[in-house]
Each structure stands twice: as structure tokens, then as C-alpha cells.
Amino acid sequence: MFRKVLIANRGEIALRIIWACKELGIKTVAVHSDVDIDSLHVRFADENICIGPAPSRDSYLNITNLIAAAEISNVDGIHPGYGFLSESAEFAQVCQACNITFIGPSPQTIALMGNKAEAKKTMKAAGVPILPGSDGPVATVDEAKAIAAEVGYPIILKASAGGGGKGMRVVNSEGEMELAFQMAGSEAASAFGNGDLYLEKYLEAPRHIEIQILGDQFGNVIHLFERECSIQRRHQKLIEESPSPALTPMLRAEMGDTAVKGAQAVGYATVGTMEFLYDKDRFYFMEMNTRIQVEHPVTENVTGVDLVKAQIMAAAGEKMQWKQKDIKLTGHSMECRINAEDPHRFTPSPGRITTFHSPGGPGVRVDTAAYAGYFVSPHYDSLLAKLIVRGNTRKDSILRMKRSLESFVVEGIKTNISMHLKIMEDEDFQAGRLSTRFMDRFTN
Fold first, then answer.
1. Answer CATH for 132-201 from 3.30.1490.20, 3.50.50.60, 3.30.300.30, 3.30.1340.10
2. Strand, coil or helix: what is 179?
3. Could you give the CA distance from residue 386 to residue 339 in angstroms, rounded to a whole number?
4. From CA 273, how far away is CA 325, in angstroms rounded?
5. Which residue from 47, 41, 33, 37 is spatially nearest to 16, judged by alpha carbons?
6. Residues 6+ apart with CB under 8 A from 224
7. Contact between residue 409 and residue 375 where contact means Cβ atoms under 8 Å apart
8. How far is CA 153 from the centre of its chain?
């Protein structure tokens, strides 16, 4: 087991990792920018080191400063959390070269699955269903037109090296292709330093369903069922739940087995998710996230598995304590991402929190690093808290989420709590009629 772990992140996920390390008897080192000196992860870690000024590129994304902090504090592991450098093959490689364990996949696996076009080819070879489209990057507009004519419009262009909605364009006809190709390629190059695009059939209103997987260094891989992530805006998830109201037990087992097969094909040995699009009783591989997810508490609630502790134990070389038959799906869980943003214009709302009261009671969990007096910086992601509930049924979870949202008090800044309440009261949401287009009615 690790002796001391540096957490290369901030906010609620840094706290979450600290709690897991404490339960495993591991000392922790928090890193922080100069504006994060009063953050809770700094207070509760055993040690803390300032790694630079507020801008992410000068602090949380500064590999040189992070490694220097790791060497100064003499750690034997680095946990990247999510975001920032969690899916950086370069960072994982540097950690490896410095004899510090990167608590995540190998650099080779991150690089392979981080290239969306290559990941798609790899999954296709492993027998995982994929959407019709190009086999790898598309070199020219004419090649894209030829493939689109074969696949049939509408199609979507996606950045090979990207994610989060950047470098993506939906193309409805051949006449739109040239401009869309140029714009998507330019955006991809700007965002990821790689302008390569691939092409696939565009589904108008699919569900987004991901399968949580867990592997170890002995070749064991299991799945921990699915999370429905269809409620999203600009490809950013807002609400996640498990189980999905769309899946039958047979389809759930099929998707889980498929995800395990895909993970085994790349020798996966840690936590991660296989992301699928689900439409008309068929599912298609979209991408793989090679890290712990923001929404991991939902799975923890319905399986009883502490995913962060399991991730740390896997990185330490310990054999997985579960077999697939040990993982049971019990009850229903749901998570709302509480963001510091205007609920109507969706613009960030930085500032000082004057009042902060989080809900509680049976089946309620709040993962947050916020408190009364905390300053929400404009330099970082607007995620303020994760409100997670658990009930015996989906209806129970919705009712519990609604009363929890109603008792969640945040003053001094704006939040999207009111928007979440509207979603909970929506008839289609309550009936489980979801798709990635669901939020159109709230944002148009």
C-alpha cells in the first residue's frame, strides 16, 4: 500500500480522495494555487504545497511544479482526480519516469483511449458495437463527403483527440460539410493541439449510458452496472442516475459484459467508464473515460463499492476483492451537479458565499468543498457541490432529491438549484423519457 499520496487536484474530488486515503492509512499532500489557500482540501490534508498562481496552466496543469512538489514531499503515489491532468498520458509518463505511481491507467492506455478515433478502431476489433463511420481520422473534406454519402446524413464530425463537446459539428447535408469540417478542425487544433477529425452517424436523440468498470493488475475486470447520463447541456452532464430507467435486466447484462470485453482488450487495470449511446434498443460505443468520474457516488450508492479506495488499491498492486457475481444492484441513486452559475443564462457566478446550508437526512450525501465564507474563483470549473440521494425506487429518489434541493441554501452567488427543481417536476423526467436533447426545452 502507498505510504503518502499527493493529490494533483482541488475542490470536492481532492477532499474525496483525502477521505479514502485516511481510511486506508495513507498520508496525503494537498497542492494548491495561491487563491486556494483557504480551501478545505488544504486544511484536511496532512501536508500542503503551493504550486503557483491562480491560472490552471500555472498551477494545477503545471507538470513541472507538480512533480517538484511530489519530490519535495517524498510521496510514492499521485492521484490526479478528474479533469486537469487525469487523462494526460504525458503526466502519467513523467510520474513513471520519476518512480512515482500514477493512480490511474498506464500512459499507453491513456494515449490509446484518449484518441477517440483509435479507441473506436480498438473497440471495433474487440467486438464492441460502434456507430457507422470512418475507420480513423478523415484526411480531407472530399473523403468526409464520400463516407457521409455511404453512412447517410446527418453525420457528426468529432475531434480525434478531444472531448467535452469541443471540435464537434453536426452536418445535415453535403452542402454543410466544407464549412463544418474547417470549423471543427480549427476548434480541435486550438483546444487539443490536434486537428484530426473522425466521422460517424449522428443519432438525433439518443440516451447517454455509461458502464462503470474496475480492473486490477492481475487481469481481472468487472463492471458495476450503468449510469444514465442523458441530462446534459453542451455535452456537460447535469444529472446522473443508476439504474437507467431504459434498460431491461437482459440489456443491462449485455452492456456490462460488452464493456468488460472492451476493457480487457486494452488490459485495463483501474477504474474507468465505457460510454455508450443507446437508441432504439441498440447501443454503440462512444468513448472511454480513463479516470474516476464526477458521478461515481451514484454507483457507490447502488453497489456498496468505494470506487476511490478500490482505485487506490488497484494502483498499489492489490488483487481485486470482488468477482462479478459479488456485485449486486440495490435501490436507486441520483446525482445533481450544483453549479455556481446563473440558472437562466448559464453563465458562471463567481464570488463570496455568504450562507451555505447543505441538506441531510436519510439517503442524502453532499460532496462539496464549499462553506459559508468560501470564495468561488472565476479561474476554475463552476461545480460547487454534488447532491446525491438514494431511495428504494426511482420515484423515491426523485422525491428525496426534490426535498433536498428545496433545503439546499446557497447565498452570495447564483446557482442552478432552481433549474434542477424544474427538472425533478418535469413529467417526462419523472416518467423516464430521457435523451441527450432533453435540456433543449430549458435552454431555448
1. 3.30.1490.20
2. helix
3. 9
4. 19
5. 41
6. 212, 213, 214, 299, 303, 305, 307, 327
7. no
8. 29
Listing DSSP states for 8-59 in one string gives: ---HHHHHHHHHHHHHTT-EEEEEEEGGGTT-HHHHHSSEEEEEE-SSGGGT
Contact 363, 400 (CB under 8 A): yes
Determine which helix (DSSP H) or strand (DSSP E) holds 118, and give its type and residue range: helix 116-125
- Give the SS3 label for residue 230: strand
β-bridge mates for residue 77, sequence order? 5, 101
Main-chain dihedrals φ then ψ at residue 154, nearest 5 degrees = -75, 155
pLDDT for the residue numbered 443: 67
Q: Which three cell numbers stand for residue 122?
A: 480498438
What are the grid coordinates assigned to 172, written together?
445535415
CATH of region 207-443: 3.30.470.20
Strands (E), 263-349: 271-279, 282-289, 332-339
Cα–Cα distance between 80 and 73 in angstroms, integer?
A: 16
The arithmetic mean of pLDDT across residues 335-353, rounded, is: 95
Q: Report the C-alpha gap between 169 and 176 in whole angstroms.
A: 10
Architecture of domain 4-92: 3-Layer(aba) Sandwich (3.40)
Share of the chain above pLDDT 90, in %: 93
pLDDT at 444: 57
Q: Across 145-204, where does the E strand assignment appear?
A: 155-159, 169-171, 197-201
- Averaged pLDDT, 256-274: 97
Rounded percentage of the chain residues whose pLDDT exceeds 70: 99
> Active-site positions?
291
165-171 own/partner pairs: CB under 8 Å, 24+ apart: 165/234, 165/235, 165/236, 166/191, 166/192, 167/191, 167/192, 167/195, 167/197, 168/235, 170/202, 171/202
CA distances in angstroms from 237 to 166, 219, 240, 293, listed in the order given? 15, 31, 7, 11
**1 contacts: CB under 8 Å, gap ≥ 6:** 24, 25, 26, 313, 316, 318
What the block records as the C-alpha cell of 53 is: 498562481
Give, in degrees to the nearest 5, the angle at Cα 220 between 218 and 226. Answer: 150
- Residues 374-400 have pLDDT tens digits of 999 999 999 999 999 999 999 999 999
Domain map (residue ranges) of the chain: 4-92, 132-201, 207-443
In 293-389, where does DSSP find H-type helix?
A: 296-303, 307-315
> Is-contact 294 195, C-beta < 8 A?
no
Q: How many CB atoms lie within 10 A of CB 439?
A: 19
Length of the chain: 444
